[in-house]
Hints:
It is a single chain. The protein is an alpha+beta fold. 23% of the residues lie in helices and 31% in strands. The chain contains five helices and 16 strands. The longest helix is centred in the C-terminal third of the chain and has 33 residues, at 246-278. Bound molecules: 2-acetamido-2-deoxy-beta-D-glucopyranose (2 copies). One 2-acetamido-2-deoxy-beta-D-glucopyranose binds at residues 30-31, 46-47.
Amino acid sequence: MLxxxxxxxxxxxxxxxxxxxxxxxxxxxxxVSWNSVNFKTLLTWDPIPVNYSYTVEYSIVGQNRERNPHxxxxxxxxxxxxxxxxxxxxxYSADVLSEPKYGETSDLVEFPHTSSDWFTPYTDTVIGRxxxxxxxxxxxxxxxxxxxxxxxxxxxxxxxxxIRDVFGDDLQYKVTFGKSASTGKKTKIxxxxxxxxxxxxxxxxxxxxxxxQAYIPSRSPDKQLGESSKRQCSSSDKSFIEDFGVGAIAxxxxxxxxxxxxxxxxxxxxxxxxxxxxxxxRVPLRDV
Length: 288
Ligand SMILES: *[C@@H]1O[C@H](CO)[C@@H](O)[C@H](O)[C@H]1NC(C)=O
Ligand SMILES: *[C@@H]1O[C@H](CO)[C@@H](O)[C@H](O)[C@H]1NC(C)=O
Protein backbone atom coordinates (compact mmCIF):
# COMPACT_ATOMS: atom_id res chain seq x y z
CA MET A 1 0.00 0.00 0.00
CA LEU A 2 2.74 2.36 0.99
CA UNK A 3 4.62 1.37 -2.15
CA UNK A 4 1.71 2.41 -4.37
CA UNK A 5 1.51 5.81 -2.72
CA UNK A 6 5.20 6.37 -3.24
CA UNK A 7 4.90 5.55 -6.89
CA UNK A 8 1.97 7.94 -7.21
CA UNK A 9 3.90 10.67 -5.40
CA UNK A 10 6.98 10.22 -7.52
CA UNK A 11 4.98 10.15 -10.74
CA UNK A 12 3.20 13.38 -9.82
CA UNK A 13 6.46 15.03 -8.81
CA UNK A 14 8.04 14.03 -12.09
CA UNK A 15 5.22 15.35 -14.21
CA UNK A 16 5.12 18.65 -12.26
CA UNK A 17 8.86 19.07 -12.69
CA UNK A 18 8.62 18.15 -16.36
CA UNK A 19 5.86 20.70 -16.96
CA UNK A 20 7.83 23.33 -15.07
CA UNK A 21 11.05 22.69 -16.96
CA UNK A 22 9.33 22.79 -20.34
CA UNK A 23 6.92 25.63 -19.66
CA UNK A 24 9.11 28.23 -21.34
CA UNK A 25 10.45 26.20 -24.17
CA UNK A 26 10.20 26.62 -27.93
CA UNK A 27 8.63 24.30 -30.46
CA UNK A 28 10.96 21.75 -31.97
CA UNK A 29 11.70 21.97 -35.68
CA UNK A 30 9.79 19.38 -37.70
CA UNK A 31 10.25 17.82 -41.11
CA VAL A 32 13.99 18.52 -41.12
CA SER A 33 15.19 17.41 -44.55
CA TRP A 34 17.94 17.79 -47.12
CA ASN A 35 17.09 19.14 -50.56
CA SER A 36 20.05 18.99 -52.87
CA VAL A 37 20.33 19.36 -56.65
CA ASN A 38 23.70 19.72 -58.39
CA PHE A 39 25.33 20.32 -54.98
CA LYS A 40 23.01 23.22 -54.19
CA THR A 41 22.19 21.87 -50.75
CA LEU A 42 19.45 23.30 -48.58
CA LEU A 43 18.42 22.08 -45.17
CA THR A 44 14.71 22.84 -44.71
CA TRP A 45 12.29 22.45 -41.82
CA ASP A 46 8.94 23.56 -40.35
CA PRO A 47 7.25 25.52 -38.84
CA ILE A 48 7.82 29.27 -39.39
CA PRO A 49 8.90 30.64 -35.97
CA VAL A 50 6.74 33.22 -34.22
CA ASN A 51 8.59 34.33 -31.10
CA TYR A 52 11.78 32.32 -31.38
CA SER A 53 14.47 31.57 -33.98
CA TYR A 54 16.48 28.69 -35.36
CA THR A 55 20.16 27.89 -35.40
CA VAL A 56 21.67 25.18 -37.57
CA GLU A 57 24.65 23.10 -36.52
CA TYR A 58 26.23 20.56 -38.81
CA SER A 59 29.04 18.10 -38.42
CA ILE A 60 30.83 15.20 -40.00
CA VAL A 61 30.15 12.07 -38.00
CA GLY A 62 32.50 12.05 -34.99
CA GLN A 63 33.78 15.60 -35.50
CA ASN A 64 33.06 19.02 -34.03
CA ARG A 65 29.83 20.85 -34.75
CA GLU A 66 30.04 23.87 -36.98
CA ARG A 67 27.71 26.73 -37.79
CA ASN A 68 27.06 28.70 -40.94
CA PRO A 69 26.88 32.46 -40.10
CA HIS A 70 23.73 32.83 -42.21
CA UNK A 71 21.90 30.20 -40.19
CA UNK A 72 22.34 31.48 -36.64
CA UNK A 73 19.22 32.78 -34.87
CA UNK A 74 17.44 32.93 -38.20
CA UNK A 75 13.70 33.42 -38.66
CA UNK A 76 13.78 31.45 -41.88
CA UNK A 77 13.11 27.74 -42.31
CA UNK A 78 15.95 26.89 -44.67
CA UNK A 79 19.71 27.03 -44.58
CA UNK A 80 21.98 26.92 -47.62
CA UNK A 81 24.86 24.60 -46.72
CA UNK A 82 26.18 24.16 -50.30
CA UNK A 83 29.55 25.67 -49.55
CA UNK A 84 29.69 24.55 -45.91
CA UNK A 85 29.79 20.83 -46.64
CA UNK A 86 33.34 21.06 -47.94
CA UNK A 87 34.22 17.38 -47.85
CA UNK A 88 31.86 16.10 -50.54
CA UNK A 89 32.38 12.45 -49.68
CA UNK A 90 31.89 12.85 -45.91
CA UNK A 91 28.76 11.83 -44.06
CA TYR A 92 27.09 14.89 -42.54
CA SER A 93 24.28 15.36 -40.10
CA ALA A 94 22.66 18.61 -39.01
CA ASP A 95 20.69 19.78 -35.99
CA VAL A 96 18.10 22.52 -36.01
CA LEU A 97 17.93 24.23 -32.60
CA SER A 98 14.99 26.36 -31.48
CA GLU A 99 16.51 29.36 -29.70
CA PRO A 100 15.45 32.82 -28.49
CA LYS A 101 15.16 35.48 -31.14
CA TYR A 102 18.30 37.36 -32.08
CA GLY A 103 19.21 39.72 -29.21
CA GLU A 104 16.92 38.03 -26.69
CA THR A 105 17.89 35.72 -23.86
CA SER A 106 16.39 32.67 -22.26
CA ASP A 107 16.81 30.76 -19.03
CA LEU A 108 16.92 27.51 -20.92
CA VAL A 109 20.14 25.58 -20.49
CA GLU A 110 19.55 23.38 -23.47
CA PHE A 111 17.44 24.29 -26.46
CA PRO A 112 15.07 21.89 -28.17
CA HIS A 113 16.62 20.45 -31.29
CA THR A 114 15.83 18.09 -34.12
CA SER A 115 18.40 16.07 -36.03
CA SER A 116 18.45 15.48 -39.76
CA ASP A 117 19.16 12.25 -41.59
CA TRP A 118 22.67 11.56 -42.80
CA PHE A 119 23.68 13.34 -45.98
CA THR A 120 26.70 12.79 -48.22
CA PRO A 121 26.85 15.37 -51.03
CA TYR A 122 28.75 13.13 -53.47
CA THR A 123 26.28 10.26 -53.32
CA ASP A 124 23.04 12.02 -52.40
CA THR A 125 22.74 15.21 -54.43
CA VAL A 126 20.32 14.88 -57.33
CA ILE A 127 21.82 15.53 -60.74
CA GLY A 128 19.55 17.95 -62.61
CA ARG A 129 18.44 17.60 -66.21
CA UNK A 130 21.22 18.11 -68.71
CA UNK A 131 20.94 20.07 -71.95
CA UNK A 132 22.25 18.66 -75.22
CA UNK A 133 22.66 19.35 -78.93
CA UNK A 134 22.08 16.90 -81.77
CA UNK A 135 24.32 16.65 -84.80
CA UNK A 136 23.58 14.36 -87.74
CA UNK A 137 26.56 13.44 -89.92
CA UNK A 138 26.52 14.38 -93.63
CA UNK A 139 26.01 10.79 -94.73
CA UNK A 140 23.22 10.53 -92.13
CA UNK A 141 24.68 7.33 -90.70
CA UNK A 142 25.79 8.82 -87.40
CA UNK A 143 24.20 11.02 -84.80
CA UNK A 144 26.29 12.74 -82.12
CA UNK A 145 24.79 14.16 -78.96
CA UNK A 146 26.81 16.92 -77.31
CA UNK A 147 25.77 16.94 -73.65
CA UNK A 148 26.43 20.07 -71.63
CA UNK A 149 27.61 18.95 -68.17
CA UNK A 150 25.27 20.81 -65.77
CA UNK A 151 26.96 23.45 -63.58
CA UNK A 152 26.99 22.93 -59.81
CA UNK A 153 26.64 25.33 -56.89
CA UNK A 154 30.34 24.73 -56.13
CA UNK A 155 33.09 27.03 -57.29
CA UNK A 156 36.75 26.88 -58.18
CA UNK A 157 38.46 30.21 -58.76
CA UNK A 158 35.10 32.00 -59.12
CA UNK A 159 34.05 29.63 -61.89
CA UNK A 160 31.20 27.25 -61.18
CA UNK A 161 32.32 23.65 -61.28
CA UNK A 162 30.41 21.37 -63.63
CA ILE A 163 29.29 17.94 -62.53
CA ARG A 164 32.11 16.58 -64.72
CA ASP A 165 34.61 18.60 -62.65
CA VAL A 166 33.24 16.96 -59.52
CA PHE A 167 32.57 13.39 -60.64
CA GLY A 168 35.26 12.96 -63.31
CA ASP A 169 35.18 9.42 -64.67
CA ASP A 170 32.41 8.46 -62.23
CA LEU A 171 30.02 10.42 -64.44
CA GLN A 172 28.37 8.72 -67.38
CA TYR A 173 25.28 9.53 -69.39
CA LYS A 174 22.35 7.36 -70.24
CA VAL A 175 20.53 8.03 -73.50
CA THR A 176 17.04 6.69 -74.11
CA PHE A 177 16.05 6.94 -77.75
CA GLY A 178 13.69 5.69 -80.42
CA LYS A 179 12.42 6.50 -83.88
CA SER A 180 10.16 9.50 -83.61
CA ALA A 181 7.47 7.57 -85.47
CA SER A 182 7.49 4.61 -83.09
CA THR A 183 7.20 3.96 -79.38
CA GLY A 184 10.11 1.49 -79.24
CA LYS A 185 12.95 2.56 -76.98
CA LYS A 186 16.63 1.71 -76.83
CA THR A 187 19.23 2.85 -74.33
CA LYS A 188 22.92 3.55 -74.54
CA ILE A 189 25.39 4.34 -71.77
CA UNK A 190 28.27 6.67 -72.57
CA UNK A 191 31.29 7.50 -70.43
CA UNK A 192 31.80 10.66 -72.46
CA UNK A 193 29.69 13.80 -72.70
CA UNK A 194 29.92 13.37 -76.47
CA UNK A 195 27.68 10.46 -77.34
CA UNK A 196 28.09 8.81 -80.72
CA UNK A 197 25.27 6.73 -82.18
CA UNK A 198 26.19 4.86 -85.34
CA UNK A 199 25.01 1.99 -87.55
CA UNK A 200 24.76 -0.33 -84.51
CA UNK A 201 22.28 1.98 -82.85
CA UNK A 202 20.36 3.80 -85.57
CA UNK A 203 19.01 3.45 -89.10
CA UNK A 204 20.43 6.11 -91.42
CA UNK A 205 18.34 9.13 -92.31
CA UNK A 206 15.53 8.41 -89.87
CA UNK A 207 14.36 10.92 -87.27
CA UNK A 208 15.09 9.84 -83.70
CA UNK A 209 14.09 11.34 -80.38
CA UNK A 210 16.38 11.40 -77.35
CA UNK A 211 16.31 11.79 -73.58
CA UNK A 212 19.59 12.14 -71.71
CA GLN A 213 20.25 11.77 -67.98
CA ALA A 214 23.37 11.59 -65.84
CA TYR A 215 24.30 8.11 -64.70
CA ILE A 216 26.68 7.50 -61.78
CA PRO A 217 27.23 3.74 -61.43
CA SER A 218 29.30 4.11 -58.23
CA ARG A 219 26.20 5.25 -56.33
CA SER A 220 23.55 3.08 -54.73
CA PRO A 221 21.03 1.93 -57.38
CA ASP A 222 18.23 4.29 -56.35
CA LYS A 223 20.49 7.33 -56.74
CA GLN A 224 22.39 6.46 -59.91
CA LEU A 225 20.19 8.28 -62.41
CA GLY A 226 19.79 12.03 -62.61
CA GLU A 227 16.78 13.95 -63.83
CA SER A 228 15.82 13.31 -67.42
CA SER A 229 16.47 16.01 -70.03
CA LYS A 230 13.80 17.47 -72.27
CA ARG A 231 13.06 15.22 -75.24
CA GLN A 232 14.71 16.36 -78.44
CA CYS A 233 14.44 14.90 -81.93
CA SER A 234 16.78 14.88 -84.91
CA SER A 235 15.15 16.42 -87.97
CA SER A 236 13.69 14.02 -90.50
CA ASP A 237 15.80 15.11 -93.46
CA LYS A 238 15.42 11.91 -95.39
CA SER A 239 15.70 12.25 -99.15
CA PHE A 240 12.55 11.98 -101.18
CA ILE A 241 13.37 8.49 -102.45
CA GLU A 242 14.11 7.15 -98.96
CA ASP A 243 10.83 8.53 -97.80
CA PHE A 244 8.56 7.04 -100.41
CA GLY A 245 10.46 4.19 -102.10
CA VAL A 246 11.34 3.79 -105.77
CA GLY A 247 7.95 2.26 -106.70
CA ALA A 248 6.03 5.16 -105.29
CA ILE A 249 8.30 7.63 -107.10
CA ALA A 250 7.72 5.81 -110.44
CA UNK A 251 3.99 5.85 -109.77
CA UNK A 252 4.14 9.54 -108.97
CA UNK A 253 6.01 10.31 -112.22
CA UNK A 254 3.49 8.25 -114.18
CA UNK A 255 0.64 10.17 -112.58
CA UNK A 256 2.39 13.43 -113.44
CA UNK A 257 2.76 12.42 -117.12
CA UNK A 258 -0.86 11.31 -117.23
CA UNK A 259 -2.02 14.63 -115.79
CA UNK A 260 0.01 16.56 -118.34
CA UNK A 261 -1.43 14.46 -121.18
CA UNK A 262 -4.99 15.02 -119.95
CA UNK A 263 -4.42 18.75 -119.67
CA UNK A 264 -2.97 18.96 -123.21
CA UNK A 265 -5.78 16.88 -124.67
CA UNK A 266 -8.41 18.97 -122.86
CA UNK A 267 -6.85 22.21 -124.10
CA UNK A 268 -6.66 20.93 -127.67
CA UNK A 269 -10.28 19.80 -127.56
CA UNK A 270 -11.48 23.09 -126.17
CA UNK A 271 -9.68 25.00 -128.90
CA UNK A 272 -11.33 22.87 -131.53
CA UNK A 273 -14.68 23.36 -129.87
CA UNK A 274 -14.19 27.12 -129.72
CA UNK A 275 -13.13 27.21 -133.36
CA UNK A 276 -16.17 25.17 -134.22
CA UNK A 277 -18.39 27.55 -132.29
CA UNK A 278 -16.81 30.52 -133.99
CA UNK A 279 -17.53 28.88 -137.31
CA UNK A 280 -21.13 28.75 -136.16
CA UNK A 281 -21.21 25.06 -136.82
CA ARG A 282 -22.51 22.81 -134.12
CA VAL A 283 -20.08 19.94 -133.92
CA PRO A 284 -20.78 17.19 -131.35
CA LEU A 285 -18.07 16.76 -128.76
CA ARG A 286 -15.75 14.04 -129.66
CA ASP A 287 -14.57 11.62 -127.02
CA VAL A 288 -10.86 11.50 -126.41
C1 LIG B 1 5.52 18.41 -41.93
O1 LIG B 1 5.25 17.83 -43.22
C2 LIG B 1 3.96 17.30 -43.31
C3 LIG B 1 3.86 16.61 -44.65
O2 LIG B 1 4.38 17.40 -45.68
C4 LIG B 1 2.93 18.41 -43.16
O3 LIG B 1 1.63 17.90 -43.24
C5 LIG B 1 3.13 19.09 -41.81
O4 LIG B 1 2.24 20.17 -41.70
C6 LIG B 1 4.56 19.57 -41.67
N1 LIG B 1 4.78 20.10 -40.34
C7 LIG B 1 4.78 21.41 -40.10
C8 LIG B 1 5.02 21.81 -38.69
O5 LIG B 1 4.60 22.25 -40.97
C1 LIG C 1 5.53 32.34 -27.87
O1 LIG C 1 4.79 31.43 -28.63
C2 LIG C 1 4.18 30.42 -27.89
C3 LIG C 1 3.56 29.46 -28.86
O2 LIG C 1 3.08 30.10 -30.01
C4 LIG C 1 3.17 31.03 -26.93
O3 LIG C 1 2.58 30.01 -26.15
C5 LIG C 1 3.89 32.01 -26.04
O4 LIG C 1 2.96 32.67 -25.22
C6 LIG C 1 4.65 33.02 -26.87
N1 LIG C 1 5.43 33.86 -26.01
C7 LIG C 1 5.56 35.16 -26.20
C8 LIG C 1 6.44 35.87 -25.23
O5 LIG C 1 5.01 35.75 -27.12
